[in-house]
Amino acid sequence: MTATIIQPIGGHARAFMRQVVMNSGVICVTGADELALAGECFSAGYLDHDAGDRFTFVITEKGKDYLRRLARCE
Known about the structure:
With 74 residues, the chain is an alpha+beta fold. 50% of the residues lie in helices and 19% in strands. The relative contact order is 0.21.
């Protein structure tokens, strides 16, 4: 069994990720605060840019796995 290293993100960024999931895995950021949160998640590999739009982000498989692990308290 191999251990997966999880890149931690802040509480506000985790809440933002949950918002992305509730929005069918895609979100278009409109303000500076949302862009900062999306950037934190993007840097950790949990979000990616939608093709051709730097303000639209999609959740990655790594992001989905991160939220599942948090829900299970691993």
